Protein backbone atom coordinates (compact mmCIF):
# COMPACT_ATOMS: atom_id res chain seq x y z
CA UNK A 1 0.00 0.00 0.00
CA UNK A 2 1.31 3.45 -0.85
CA UNK A 3 1.77 5.94 1.99
CA UNK A 4 -0.92 8.54 2.48
CA UNK A 5 0.22 12.14 2.29
CA UNK A 6 -1.63 15.35 2.85
CA UNK A 7 -1.25 18.55 0.90
CA UNK A 8 0.46 21.41 2.68
CA UNK A 9 -2.05 24.02 3.82
CA UNK A 10 -0.67 27.46 2.99
CA UNK A 11 -2.66 28.92 5.91
CA UNK A 12 -0.77 26.88 8.50
CA UNK A 13 2.17 28.52 10.28
CA UNK A 14 5.60 27.94 8.77
CA UNK A 15 8.67 27.06 10.86
CA UNK A 16 12.31 27.59 10.03
CA UNK A 17 13.23 24.05 11.04
CA UNK A 18 11.78 20.85 12.43
CA UNK A 19 14.01 21.38 15.48
CA UNK A 20 12.16 24.62 16.26
CA UNK A 21 8.86 22.80 16.04
CA UNK A 22 9.99 19.76 18.03
CA UNK A 23 11.48 21.92 20.81
CA UNK A 24 8.10 23.52 21.46
CA UNK A 25 6.70 22.47 24.83
CA UNK A 26 3.20 22.68 23.37
CA UNK A 27 3.85 20.10 20.65
CA UNK A 28 1.83 16.97 21.44
CA UNK A 29 0.78 15.93 17.94
CA UNK A 30 2.02 15.92 14.34
CA UNK A 31 0.71 18.98 12.46
CA UNK A 32 -1.28 18.11 9.35
CA UNK A 33 1.39 19.44 6.97
CA UNK A 34 3.75 16.71 8.28
CA UNK A 35 1.22 13.88 8.09
CA UNK A 36 2.67 10.87 6.28
CA UNK A 37 0.70 7.74 7.06
CA UNK A 38 2.23 4.35 6.29
CA UNK A 39 0.46 1.04 6.05
CA UNK A 40 0.63 -0.47 9.60
CA UNK A 41 1.64 -3.78 8.00
CA UNK A 42 4.51 -2.08 6.18
CA UNK A 43 6.90 -1.91 9.12
CA UNK A 44 10.61 -2.67 9.18
CA UNK A 45 11.90 -5.76 11.01
CA UNK A 46 15.48 -6.29 12.15
CA UNK A 47 14.90 -9.40 14.27
CA UNK A 48 15.08 -12.01 11.51
CA UNK A 49 18.73 -12.93 10.83
CA UNK A 50 17.81 -13.80 7.25
CA UNK A 51 17.03 -10.13 6.76
CA UNK A 52 20.34 -8.74 8.07
CA UNK A 53 22.33 -6.82 5.50
CA UNK A 54 25.63 -8.49 4.45
CA UNK A 55 28.90 -7.68 6.23
CA UNK A 56 32.04 -6.83 4.25
CA UNK A 57 35.34 -7.03 6.11
CA UNK A 58 37.49 -4.18 4.78
CA UNK A 59 40.69 -5.83 5.99
CA UNK A 60 39.98 -8.87 3.83
CA UNK A 61 38.78 -6.73 0.91
CA UNK A 62 42.17 -5.01 0.85
CA UNK A 63 44.19 -8.06 1.91
CA UNK A 64 47.56 -8.89 0.35
CA UNK A 65 46.37 -12.49 0.22
CA UNK A 66 44.84 -13.15 -3.24
CA UNK A 67 42.54 -15.84 -1.84
CA UNK A 68 41.18 -13.69 1.02
CA UNK A 69 40.65 -10.73 -1.30
CA UNK A 70 38.97 -12.86 -3.99
CA UNK A 71 36.52 -14.34 -1.48
CA UNK A 72 35.57 -10.91 -0.11
CA UNK A 73 35.21 -9.44 -3.62
CA UNK A 74 32.86 -12.28 -4.50
CA UNK A 75 30.84 -11.58 -1.33
CA UNK A 76 30.79 -7.88 -2.19
CA UNK A 77 29.41 -8.64 -5.64
CA UNK A 78 26.64 -10.80 -4.18
CA UNK A 79 25.75 -8.04 -1.71
CA UNK A 80 25.48 -5.48 -4.53
CA UNK A 81 23.37 -7.83 -6.63
CA UNK A 82 21.07 -9.30 -3.98
CA UNK A 83 20.77 -6.41 -1.53
CA UNK A 84 22.22 -3.18 -2.89
CA UNK A 85 23.20 -2.57 0.75
CA UNK A 86 25.95 -3.87 3.01
CA UNK A 87 27.89 -2.82 6.08
CA UNK A 88 31.66 -2.42 6.16
CA UNK A 89 33.64 -3.33 9.28
CA UNK A 90 37.36 -3.01 10.12
CA UNK A 91 37.63 -0.06 7.72
CA UNK A 92 40.27 1.77 9.72
CA UNK A 93 38.33 4.98 10.30
CA UNK A 94 38.48 5.53 14.09
CA UNK A 95 35.16 5.32 15.91
CA UNK A 96 36.29 8.40 17.81
CA UNK A 97 36.44 10.38 14.55
CA UNK A 98 32.99 9.13 13.51
CA UNK A 99 31.57 10.23 16.86
CA UNK A 100 33.32 13.60 16.63
CA UNK A 101 31.74 14.13 13.21
CA UNK A 102 28.28 13.34 14.53
CA UNK A 103 28.84 15.61 17.54
CA UNK A 104 30.04 18.46 15.30
CA UNK A 105 26.91 18.18 13.15
CA UNK A 106 24.72 18.10 16.25
CA UNK A 107 26.34 21.32 17.45
CA UNK A 108 25.51 22.89 14.09
CA UNK A 109 21.85 21.93 14.33
CA UNK A 110 21.76 23.33 17.86
CA UNK A 111 22.91 26.77 16.70
CA UNK A 112 20.26 29.51 16.94
CA UNK A 113 18.13 29.72 13.81
CA UNK A 114 19.45 33.23 13.08
CA UNK A 115 23.01 31.88 12.89
CA UNK A 116 22.04 29.20 10.36
CA UNK A 117 20.12 31.53 8.06
CA UNK A 118 23.20 32.49 6.04
CA UNK A 119 23.41 28.89 4.80
CA UNK A 120 19.79 28.74 3.62
CA UNK A 121 19.76 28.51 -0.17
CA UNK A 122 17.63 27.16 -2.99
CA UNK A 123 20.58 26.34 -5.23
CA UNK A 124 21.19 22.61 -5.51
CA UNK A 125 24.97 22.65 -5.77
CA UNK A 126 25.89 25.53 -3.49
CA UNK A 127 28.98 24.46 -1.52
CA UNK A 128 27.14 24.70 1.81
CA UNK A 129 23.40 24.60 2.35
CA UNK A 130 21.04 23.77 5.16
CA UNK A 131 17.30 23.61 5.46
CA UNK A 132 14.37 21.47 6.43
CA UNK A 133 12.19 18.83 4.77
CA UNK A 134 13.38 17.94 1.22
CA UNK A 135 12.34 20.66 -1.18
CA UNK A 136 9.65 22.88 0.29
CA UNK A 137 8.83 24.16 -3.18
CA UNK A 138 7.59 20.75 -4.32
CA UNK A 139 6.98 18.76 -1.11
CA UNK A 140 3.47 17.41 -0.82
CA UNK A 141 4.19 16.61 2.80
CA UNK A 142 6.78 18.13 5.11
CA UNK A 143 9.50 15.80 6.38
CA UNK A 144 10.44 15.39 10.06
CA UNK A 145 13.99 16.33 9.19
CA UNK A 146 16.51 19.14 9.05
CA UNK A 147 19.65 18.81 6.93
CA UNK A 148 23.11 20.20 6.33
CA UNK A 149 24.87 19.48 3.03
CA UNK A 150 28.51 20.38 2.41
CA UNK A 151 30.44 19.56 -0.77
CA UNK A 152 33.79 18.10 0.34
CA UNK A 153 35.28 17.08 -3.04
CA UNK A 154 36.64 17.94 -5.60
CA UNK A 155 37.00 21.17 -3.59
CA UNK A 156 36.77 20.94 0.17
CA UNK A 157 34.26 23.33 1.69
CA UNK A 158 33.53 23.79 5.33
CA UNK A 159 31.77 25.78 8.00
CA UNK A 160 33.45 28.29 10.26
CA UNK A 161 30.93 27.44 12.96
CA UNK A 162 30.47 25.59 15.21
CA UNK A 163 34.03 25.49 16.50
CA UNK A 164 35.92 22.38 15.42
CA UNK A 165 33.62 21.42 12.56
CA UNK A 166 36.10 22.29 9.81
CA UNK A 167 38.97 20.22 11.17
CA UNK A 168 36.84 17.19 11.94
CA UNK A 169 34.98 17.26 8.62
CA UNK A 170 38.23 17.53 6.64
CA UNK A 171 39.69 14.43 8.26
CA UNK A 172 36.38 12.54 8.07
CA UNK A 173 35.87 13.34 4.38
CA UNK A 174 39.41 12.21 3.49
CA UNK A 175 39.13 8.96 5.41
CA UNK A 176 35.65 8.23 4.07
CA UNK A 177 36.72 8.88 0.49
CA UNK A 178 39.64 6.46 0.89
CA UNK A 179 37.22 3.74 2.03
CA UNK A 180 34.84 4.53 -0.86
CA UNK A 181 37.73 4.25 -3.33
CA UNK A 182 38.60 0.73 -2.15
CA UNK A 183 34.92 -0.26 -2.26
CA UNK A 184 34.69 0.92 -5.88
CA UNK A 185 37.86 -1.00 -6.70
CA UNK A 186 36.31 -4.13 -5.21
CA UNK A 187 33.07 -3.59 -7.10
CA UNK A 188 34.99 -3.20 -10.36
CA UNK A 189 36.80 -6.49 -9.77
CA UNK A 190 33.55 -8.22 -8.78
CA UNK A 191 32.33 -7.37 -12.30
CA UNK A 192 35.42 -8.91 -13.89
CA UNK A 193 37.00 -5.53 -14.65
CA UNK A 194 40.30 -3.94 -13.68
CA UNK A 195 40.21 -2.50 -10.16
CA UNK A 196 40.42 1.10 -11.36
CA UNK A 197 37.94 0.75 -14.23
CA UNK A 198 35.02 2.55 -12.55
CA UNK A 199 37.12 5.27 -10.97
CA UNK A 200 38.77 6.01 -14.33
CA UNK A 201 35.50 5.94 -16.28
CA UNK A 202 33.76 8.23 -13.78
CA UNK A 203 36.64 10.73 -13.47
CA UNK A 204 36.92 9.91 -9.77
CA UNK A 205 39.74 12.41 -9.25
CA UNK A 206 37.13 15.13 -9.85
CA UNK A 207 34.27 13.14 -8.34
CA UNK A 208 31.62 14.77 -6.17
CA UNK A 209 31.58 13.95 -2.46
CA UNK A 210 28.90 15.45 -0.21
CA UNK A 211 28.69 15.38 3.59
CA UNK A 212 24.92 15.27 4.20
CA UNK A 213 23.91 15.41 7.87
CA UNK A 214 20.31 14.69 8.84
CA UNK A 215 18.62 15.68 12.10
CA UNK A 216 15.48 13.77 13.13
CA UNK A 217 14.16 14.96 16.52
CA UNK A 218 11.87 12.83 18.63
CA UNK A 219 8.33 12.89 17.24
CA UNK A 220 5.17 12.74 19.42
CA UNK A 221 3.39 10.52 16.85
CA UNK A 222 6.12 8.68 14.90
CA UNK A 223 3.60 6.61 12.94
CA UNK A 224 2.21 9.81 11.44
CA UNK A 225 5.48 11.33 10.17
CA UNK A 226 8.51 10.37 8.10
CA UNK A 227 12.15 11.44 8.19
CA UNK A 228 12.80 10.76 4.51
CA UNK A 229 10.28 8.87 2.33
CA UNK A 230 11.26 5.92 0.10
CA UNK A 231 13.99 6.96 -2.33
CA UNK A 232 17.20 5.85 -4.01
CA UNK A 233 20.55 7.64 -3.89
CA UNK A 234 21.88 9.45 -6.96
CA UNK A 235 25.60 8.58 -6.78
CA UNK A 236 27.87 5.57 -7.18
CA UNK A 237 28.01 4.54 -3.52
CA UNK A 238 26.87 6.19 -0.28
CA UNK A 239 28.52 5.62 3.10
CA UNK A 240 26.43 6.34 6.19
CA UNK A 241 26.99 6.60 9.93
CA UNK A 242 24.48 7.38 12.68
CA UNK A 243 24.28 7.96 16.41
CA UNK A 244 22.85 5.32 18.71
CA UNK A 245 19.32 5.63 17.29
CA UNK A 246 18.22 3.34 14.46
CA UNK A 247 15.81 4.47 11.78
CA UNK A 248 17.14 3.44 8.37
CA UNK A 249 14.93 0.89 6.60
CA UNK A 250 15.77 -0.93 3.37
CA UNK A 251 13.36 -2.56 0.90
CA UNK A 252 14.48 -6.17 0.41
CA UNK A 253 12.36 -8.84 -1.28
CA UNK A 254 9.31 -6.57 -0.96
CA UNK A 255 9.81 -6.25 2.80
CA UNK A 256 11.07 -3.27 4.76
CA UNK A 257 14.10 -4.24 6.84
CA UNK A 258 15.24 -2.11 9.77
CA UNK A 259 19.03 -1.79 9.54
CA UNK A 260 20.82 -2.49 12.81
CA UNK A 261 24.48 -2.01 11.93
CA UNK A 262 27.46 -3.25 13.91
CA UNK A 263 29.11 -0.63 16.17
CA UNK A 264 31.56 1.47 14.20
CA UNK A 265 30.46 0.07 10.82
CA UNK A 266 29.71 2.07 7.71
CA UNK A 267 26.35 1.31 6.13
CA UNK A 268 26.96 1.36 2.37
CA UNK A 269 24.53 1.33 -0.52
CA UNK A 270 24.73 1.21 -4.29
CA UNK A 271 23.50 4.37 -6.02
CA UNK A 272 21.70 5.11 -9.28
CA UNK A 273 24.91 5.75 -11.22
CA UNK A 274 26.16 2.27 -10.32
CA UNK A 275 22.90 0.68 -11.46
CA UNK A 276 23.31 2.45 -14.81
CA UNK A 277 26.94 1.35 -15.16
CA UNK A 278 26.05 -2.29 -14.49
CA UNK A 279 22.93 -2.21 -16.68
CA UNK A 280 20.71 -3.24 -13.74
CA UNK A 281 22.99 -6.00 -12.42
CA UNK A 282 23.70 -4.05 -9.23
CA UNK A 283 20.56 -2.34 -7.94
CA UNK A 284 20.04 1.04 -6.32
CA UNK A 285 17.56 0.01 -3.64
CA UNK A 286 14.64 1.90 -2.11
CA UNK A 287 15.25 2.98 1.48
CA UNK A 288 13.68 5.40 3.94
CA UNK A 289 14.31 7.09 7.29
CA UNK A 290 11.73 6.60 10.00
CA UNK A 291 11.37 8.61 13.22
CA UNK A 292 10.80 7.71 16.86
CA UNK A 293 9.29 9.24 19.99
CA UNK A 294 12.31 8.53 22.21
CA UNK A 295 15.32 10.59 21.16
CA UNK A 296 16.92 12.56 18.35
CA UNK A 297 18.52 10.53 15.56
CA UNK A 298 21.43 12.02 13.63
CA UNK A 299 22.81 10.38 10.51
CA UNK A 300 25.56 11.46 8.16
CA UNK A 301 25.25 10.15 4.62
CA UNK A 302 28.25 10.62 2.34
CA UNK A 303 27.26 10.10 -1.31
CA UNK A 304 30.19 9.68 -3.70
CA UNK A 305 29.51 10.30 -7.36
CA UNK A 306 31.23 10.88 -10.69
CA UNK A 307 32.58 14.25 -11.79
CA UNK A 308 29.64 16.59 -12.34
CA UNK A 309 30.22 16.73 -16.12
CA UNK A 310 30.49 12.95 -16.49
CA UNK A 311 27.58 10.80 -17.70
CA UNK A 312 27.20 7.22 -16.53
CA UNK A 313 26.50 4.72 -19.32
CA UNK A 314 26.28 0.92 -19.24
CA UNK A 315 29.80 -0.50 -19.36
CA UNK A 316 30.48 -1.83 -22.89
CA UNK A 317 32.55 -4.78 -21.66
CA UNK A 318 29.67 -5.95 -19.45
CA UNK A 319 27.14 -5.58 -22.25
CA UNK A 320 29.32 -7.69 -24.52
CA UNK A 321 29.93 -10.30 -21.83
CA UNK A 322 26.22 -10.62 -20.99
CA UNK A 323 25.00 -10.22 -24.57
CA UNK A 324 22.75 -7.34 -23.54
CA UNK A 325 21.66 -4.04 -25.02
CA UNK A 326 22.14 -0.84 -23.03
CA UNK A 327 19.10 -0.13 -20.88
CA UNK A 328 19.95 3.52 -20.17
CA UNK A 329 20.75 6.69 -22.03
CA UNK A 330 23.43 9.06 -20.78
CA UNK A 331 23.04 12.12 -18.57
CA UNK A 332 25.72 14.07 -16.73
CA UNK A 333 25.81 13.62 -12.98
CA UNK A 334 24.94 17.28 -12.44
CA UNK A 335 21.84 17.02 -14.64
CA UNK A 336 20.87 13.77 -12.92
CA UNK A 337 20.97 15.43 -9.49
CA UNK A 338 18.89 18.30 -10.83
CA UNK A 339 16.37 15.80 -12.13
CA UNK A 340 16.16 14.03 -8.77
CA UNK A 341 15.40 17.33 -7.05
CA UNK A 342 12.67 18.26 -9.54
CA UNK A 343 8.90 17.69 -9.37
CA UNK A 344 9.23 15.11 -12.17
CA UNK A 345 11.01 12.72 -9.82
CA UNK A 346 9.05 13.35 -6.61
CA UNK A 347 8.78 9.96 -4.87
CA UNK A 348 9.35 8.22 -8.22
CA UNK A 349 12.32 6.20 -9.53
CA UNK A 350 14.63 8.76 -11.11
CA UNK A 351 16.17 6.03 -13.27
CA UNK A 352 12.88 5.62 -15.14
CA UNK A 353 13.58 8.90 -16.91
CA UNK A 354 16.79 7.49 -18.41
CA UNK A 355 15.61 4.00 -19.24
CA UNK A 356 15.56 3.08 -22.92
CA UNK A 357 11.88 2.81 -23.79
CA UNK A 358 11.96 -0.52 -25.67
CA UNK A 359 13.34 -2.17 -22.51
UniProtKB/TrEMBL annotation:
Residues 206-306 form the Fe2OG dioxygenase domain. Gene3D superfamilies: B-lactam Antibiotic, Isopenicillin N Synthase, Chain. It is found in: Cytoplasm; Nucleus. InterPro entries: DIOX_N, IPNS-like_FE2OG_OXY, IPNS-like_sf, Oxoglu/Fe-dep_dioxygenase_dom, Plant_2OG-oxidoreductases. GO terms for cellular component: cytoplasm; nucleus. Transmembrane segments: none annotated. Keywords: Cytoplasm, Iron, Metal-binding, Nucleus, Oxidoreductase, Vitamin C. SUPFAM superfamilies: Clavaminate synthase-like. PROSITE patterns: FE2OG_OXY (PS51471). It comes from the Eukaryota. Pfam families: 2OG-FeII_Oxy, DIOX_N. GO terms for molecular function: L-ascorbic acid binding; metal ion binding; oxidoreductase activity. Belongs to the iron/ascorbate-dependent oxidoreductase family. Involved in the regulation of shoot development and salicylic acid (SA) homeostasis. This is Fe2OG dioxygenase domain-containing protein.
